[in-house]
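CORE FACILITY INTAKE
Project code: CF-77B
Contact: R.S. (postdoc)
Sample description: multi-component assembly, two entities in total
Requested service: structural model of the whole complex
Turnaround: standard
Below are the sequence entries exactly as provided by the requester. Do not edit them.
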Amino acid sequence: DAGVTQSPTHLIKTRGQQVTLRCSPKSGHDTVSWYQQALGQGPQFIFQYYEEEERQRGNFPDRFSGHQFPNYSSELNVNALLLGDSALYLCASSLQGHNTEAFFGQGTRLTVV
Amino acid sequence: AQTVTQSQPEMSVQEAETVTLSCTYDTSESNYYLFWYKQPPSRQMILVIRQEAYKQQNATENRFSVNFQKAAKSFSLKISDSQLGDTAMYFCAFLTPLGYEKLTFGTGTRLTIIP
């Protein structure tokens, strides 16, 4: 079992550009949650996807959007990148109704210059 | 809204000693879960220990144990016989099983084990 896999591991983007991050959940999991972890901070909840729909959203602007595919994998899209979007983006997968057993990926380190 | 506070940004302890990390939280919910996650330099969040609020008995996992004080809304982590591999960021987190079960994290404590 490969666990939760995220790609890419690192990337650098220019202010104003758009970025797409990807997450493949642990085998058997159907729910994906995304978190943003700024340097020196704890992760902040962005949103959660289940059954290809966004089920809950944290305090993030509409520039942050996502998608879940029929195979439960997910993408996080960020438009019009700002310097403040530089962070580690973590994906967590779980089985719906069992989010006390979430598994995290190793994250994508996004740097906006 | 739930909040989680970790008041110790950094701690260090000699190898084989015991260390306690502090966490307080605020919620109006009666049913919830509390977690300690470890984040080593590899960046992956690893679950260390979990406590269900309705259970009075403190959770233990090998060298890791918690002191859960529900009335005081306190949830500390004790690491016994600390090892070099325990060096990491430690995050306290809260989850309510109602709704969509998002995790709310504290700001973390950087723990360094000194050889």
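Facility notes:
- The two ends of chain A are 36 Å apart (CA to CA).
- The mean pLDDT of chain A is 94.
Invoice: internal transfer
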